[in-house]
Amino acid sequence: MATAELFADGWRPDSWHDRVAAQQPDWPDAGALDDVLAQLRTFPPLVFAGEARSLQEHLASTQAGNAFLLVAGDCAESFQAFSADSIRDKLRVILQMSVVLMYGSGVPTVKVARIAGQFSKPRSAPTETRDGVTLPSFRGDTINDFAFDARARRPDPARLLRAYNQSAATLNLVRAFTKGGFADLTRVHAWNQEFVASSPEGQRYEELAGEIERALRFMRACGIDLETELQLHEVDVWTAHEALLLGFEEAMTRRDSITDDWYDCSAHLLWLGERTRRLDGAHVEFLAGVHNPIGVKLGPTTTPEEAVGLCERLNPRRIPGRLVLFSRMGADKIADALPPLLRAVHLGGHPVVWACDPMHGNTFQHESGYKTRRFDDIMREVHEFFAACGRADVWPGGLHVELTGENVTECLGGADAVLGADLENKYETMCDPRLNARQSLDLAFETAALLRSTR
Ligand code: PEP
Ligand code: CO
């Protein structure tokens, strides 16, 4: 059957235009925006349809309980913090977490980075007021500037071109790092950064890396030619972002020459946020028609009918690997909020990957004024997620976290206990607080233990 028939009748990349699109900026100059979108339509795709299909196969395997999904990266990428070092350090942490999870669970980690396009942010308020001055909220570097002045906060479509170019350069480096030797399993020790290596988590990682090296030596002694085993030398890291700015996503959407299906070629996986998942809204309409794997964030107010409605709308043919549902309830709410959704989706016969975003339901403003999260709340939500999945007989398929490879002080706690007074030391995020490299590794070890007991 031609897969073009599998999705909504008469769908076009611009079908979303007659729906309500939440969270779109007020572009002051519509003509300038149209010019930029016209240019973007002529630019090469950032990713290929075949790659998105390959991710979908890995997600189908995840849904069946034979792999674990790790989605990780910045809350918002920035133009300013764009460097080879920051991309490398982020990849290092993702690779470290991935081997820790894999070693614990005995199943492959499907690695998806919030990178090469994760710029645009939904906001709870359209404006921000400081000292009596009210300006448009910062919506991400694709739209306006973080600085609090009227000029900086004016949406500027030229930023979309810069975001496209930065995404292309980032992806180029990610591909080089993952295929060009950096991700080689024989370099497992080298992913431990200096400031992590001396810490208890770093030491624990060193031990695990030592065991992996011994296992590799053992296989070599058995006569296995490790040099020719490509899986040991290269990894796949797929890209993902929230498909928030629909004009941009539409401009990046192309028909695949092999299947004739539409793919949003701005990233491999696109997700709907908690604020952009309305069933009759423009975002759902857009993502219903592209054939990439799709994610949906589900917060504590999600009803079972909504969850099933989203599954019906986004994956009517129940294709395994097409849909990932990210539970982001908050540590105090997940035990009540998640089980009815797990049940309803199961009863609806929908094959979805269930994954846990333990970050977005646990954000609060610290008395110092910084937006933060407690490592303990994050961990508690992960534990509750595994428990709820266990009771529902559903494979706890993945983790979605905000992190950085740097030694930031944005989330409280962890083995090194970042304290309230420490937040100001190295608080660099432009949006939500991220786990630092040590906290990320900590989280991976605890999750690996949960996975081990699940299997
Ligand atoms: C995010 O992932 O950065 C985000 C805004 O999430 P949510 O839509 O779940 O709030
Ligand atoms: Co965020």
Strands, count: 14
Structural shape: globular
Class by SSE composition: alpha/beta
How does the major sheet shape up? 8 strands, parallel, barrel
Computed Rg: 21 Å
List the helices and strands and how they pair.
Blueprint: H1 30-42, H2 49-63, E1 68-73, H3 84-105, E2 109-114, E3 127-130, E4 133-136, H4 158-179, H5 194-197, H6 200-221, E5 237-242, H7 246-251, E6 253-255, E7 262-264, E8 269-272, H8 282-289, E9 294-298, H9 304-314, E10 323-327, H10 334-347, E11 353-356, E12 364-365, E13 371-372, H11 375-392, E14 396-402, H12 437-454
Bound molecules: phosphoenolpyruvate and cobalt (II) ion.
Phosphoenolpyruvate (PEP) binds at residues 75, 122, 273-275, 297, 328, 360, 432.
Put the structure in a nutshell.
By secondary structure, the protein is an alpha/beta fold.
Description of the structure:
The chain is globular. The strands form 4 sheets. An 8-stranded parallel β-barrel has the order 1-2-5-8-9-10-11-14, surrounded by 7 helices. The protein starts with 29 loop residues before the first helix and ends with a helix. 38% of the residues lie in helices and 13% in strands. It is an alpha/beta fold. α3 (84-105) runs parallel beside α12 (437-454), α10 packs parallel to α11 (375-392) and α11 (375-392) runs parallel beside α12. The chain contains 12 helices and 14 strands. Mean pLDDT is 95; it is low at 1-6. The longest helix is centred in the N-terminal third of the chain and has 22 residues, at 84-105. The structure holds phosphoenolpyruvate and cobalt (II) ion (CO). The site of phosphoenolpyruvate has 9 residues, from loops.
